[in-house]
Specification:
It is built from 7 helices and 7 strands. It is α/β, with parallel strands linked by helices.
Length: about 200
């Protein structure tokens, strides 16, 4: 008698992460995590946690929260942090903050740290963190204004105010790292472990 594959849950509302899993043929459904990210960051405080470590902490908190509600499932959660040197960026609250951030990032290299975690029944037995190095070309305030006008509210939905798979690609000179990591999900290591779980065809 064949065993029914375990349900896979994506604990993320990210359209980019859903797209990556769907395109890779992974069967899953979405359950949004109930985690206050800023409260988690506040609890960490000035502990010396790196931006990459923070991404992993947040992803694990999301994965565990959802896995406690659905203990029979394989729960995937992810988080992405962005830093320019020691400065940690968050999603801009409005277009003015997005404008200031993009002007600051112009001509400089920032890091995108993407973490993915698998949780089962409140434990997180597997994780992966990967970093991409993103160098924006130099541009002026006039271009930033035109860019933000073109992308609209999408600029407020990502920490860097861009989606690399869209118009945001025009902001960059170079991008070093996996496309999947840039979008926000280290996909290839995740697919490998999902095959080991028997959640996808191996």
């Amino acid at each position: 008698m064949l065993t029914k594959p375990r349900e896979v849950i994506l604990a993320s509302g990210s359209a980019g992460r859903r797209m990556l899993l769907e395109n890779a043929g992974v069967p899953f459904r979405v359950e949004l995590p109930d985690v206050d990210e800023r409260a988690v960051e506040a609890a960490i405080g000035d502990s010396g946690t790196t931006a990459a470590e923070l991404a992993l902490i947040l992803a694990e908190a999301k994965a565990i929260e959802v896995s406690l509600r659905f203990p029979e499932a394989i729960v995937i959660a992810a988080d992405q942090t962005m830093n320019l040197g020691d400065r940690l960026f968050h999603k801009p609250v409005d277009m003015e903050e997005a404008r200031r951030n993009l002007i600051e990032l112009s001509g400089r290299t920032h890091e995108l740290n993407s973490a993915v975690v698998i949780a089962e029944a409140g434990t997180a037995p597997w994780n992966c963190v990967d970093t991409a190095y993103m160098t924006m070309r130099e541009f002026g305030p006039d271009y930033v204004g035109r860019y933000l006008s073109a992308v609209g509210d999408a600029a407020l939905k990502s920490v860097g105010s861009y989606q690399i798979e869209g118009l945001g690609a025009q902001l960059f000179d170079t991008a070093e790292g996996s496309f999947f990591t840039i979008v926000g999900l280290p996909l290839l290591p995740l697919l490998r472990v999902l095959r080991e779980y028997g959640a996808i065809d191996g």
